[in-house]
Specification:
Low-confidence stretches: 1-33
Number of domains: 1
Shape: globular
CATH topology: Growth Hormone, Chain: A
Order of helices and strands: HHHHHHHHHHHHHHHHHHH
Mean pLDDT: 83
Oligomer: single chain
Structural class: mainly alpha
Number of strands: 0
Helix content: over 70%
């Protein structure tokens, strides 16, 4: 099996280029003498799957944290958002590090922080230690999906980018399945600390798999560039904000995935348990079905990619439909209909893979890597902001004598609708008009 670069070459230490660079090249070198590309991608995806588990574990451990530490709904939202905040901020440095030192070194150097953070969370004597654990986990997981995306861009055919990105998002959903029924059953029988302990052990196993299997293909035909400093790299990343079409991309990037993760990773179990009397395992079963569907949704949308001329319209329309479904769910007081809407949302969120493809098509090859890095950062900062904001909304609604979950869902719907209109109205990239 031969690796073909879909747009960029993997730099090696001592000849790293700009952050990250995607020159148009076609490699004729073999990907690895020991492991084919798909094996290495699966190994990297093990880290992404674990990051998905950490990102959504709050929905399962929320009740235990509230009982042990007396957390309010606002504090719970802050706890969930802290992972996304630390994850998103670290994206700036991880994108540069991957270009300077390579994907393998960056992932192997950062992943032990997630192991330490999960272990600290399992042993946390107070709320403060638990929050520190979240920060460590977020930073440790921060290169996980970016590494997969850049690996695909650098070593797979460019015309298959949407498909392989969607497939990767789907396989990462295995982490969502872990925080469904399996972890709910563990937490119900042995407590939330055991859940974090299991995640720590699985993260250590993922690190060993990546260490053993991932050896980045050398691309000797890639053009050499002078080594770029950290300051220059950061300035190059900031320069993307001077391009008008960046703002619409980031507005929706901070919203669509955040809406799905705020539901799946924070409010799903509390909503079903408090509004409809579900048990923790019952809620875990719903989360498991939702996660199972999310395995296939991105890949399906990746195969349906309509091309650059129609892709933006699809993204705008699907995001607006998603907002409408959150609004309907807010007003429903029927358990079966609510669960059905959650499942449909699990299918619909797969359109997010088209946003990645839109980013890749919206910038020249020299800027694609840093654009993907910035977009990935926006996604997870959006998760952090939305989870924290919805926690504050829930606390405000409870203080006003209103049902907090209705306020939360309407807040998500409004946020997503505004982002969808911003994406539609702000300028598109000139590259898409050619």
């Amino acid at each position: 099996m031969r690796g073909r670069s879909g747009g960029c070459a993997e730099p090696t230490p001592g000849r790293a280029g700009r952050v990250p660079q995607f020159p148009v090249t076609v490699s004729t070198s073999p990907p690895s003498r020991t492991h084919p590309l798909w094996i290495m991608l699966l190994a990297l995806l093990s880290g992404f799957a674990l990051s998905q588990a950490y990102r959504t574990v709050t929905a399962i451990v929320a009740q235990g944290l509230q009982q042990d530490f007396g957390l309010s709904v606002q504090a719970l939202g802050t706890f969930a958002g802290l992972f996304g905040l630390s994850f998103g901020v670290a994206q700036l440095l991880m994108g540069i590090a991957m270009d300077r030192y390579g994907l393998r070194r960056t992932v192997l150097a950062s992943a032990p922080l997630s192991i330490a953070g999960a272990a600290l969370s399992a042993l946390a004597p107070s709320h403060g230690w638990l929050m520190l654990g979240q920060v460590l986990i977020g930073v440790g997981c921060s290169p996980a999906f970016l590494a997969c995306t850049l690996f695909i861009s650098r070593h797979f055919p460019s015309e298959r980018f949407a498909f392989f990105s969607g497939l990767s998002l789907g396989l990462g959903g295995l982490g969502l399945m872990l925080t469904g029924t399996p972890l709910a059953w563990v937490v119900q029988h042995w407590g939330w600390r055991t859940g974090f302990g299991i995640l720590a052990a699985m993260s250590a196993l993922s690190w060993l798999i990546i260490y053993a299997l991932v050896h980045e293909p050398a691309l000797p035909d890639a053009p050499k560039r002078a080594r770029e400093g950290w300051g220059e790299s950061l300035r190059g990343l900031v320069a993307l904000f001077t391009l008008p079409h960046t703002w619409g991309i980031l507005a929706l990037g901070m919203s669509a995935y955040a809406a799905f993760l705020s539901l799946r990773g924070l409010w799903l179990a509390p909503l079903l348990m408090d509004r409809f009397g579900f048990s923790l395992v019952d809620s875990g079963n719903v989360a498991l079905v939702l996660s199972l569907i999310s395995l296939f949704a991105p890949g399906t949308f990746g195969r349906m990619d309509p091309g650059p001329l129609r892709r933006r319209a699809w993204v705008a329309n699907f995001s607006l439909l998603m907002a409408a479904m959150f609004a309907v769910m807010a007003l429903l007081q029927h358990a079966g209909a609510t669960v059905a809407l959650m499942i449909v949302l699990g299918m619909l969120w797969g359109f997010s893979v088209l946003q990645y493809t839109d980013v890749r098509a919206s910038y020249p090859s020299a800027l694609t890597g840093r654009a993907l890095s910035l977009y990935t950062m926006s996604m997870f900062l959006g998760v952090a902001l939305m989870q924290s904001a919805t926690g504050a909304v829930a606390a405000w609604a409870a203080g006003q004598g209103l049902e907090p979950y209705r306020a939360v869902l309407l807040g998500i719907a409004g946020w997503l609708a505004l982002a969808s209109f911003a994406f539609r109205l702000l300028p598109a990239s000139p590259l898409l008009r050619r």
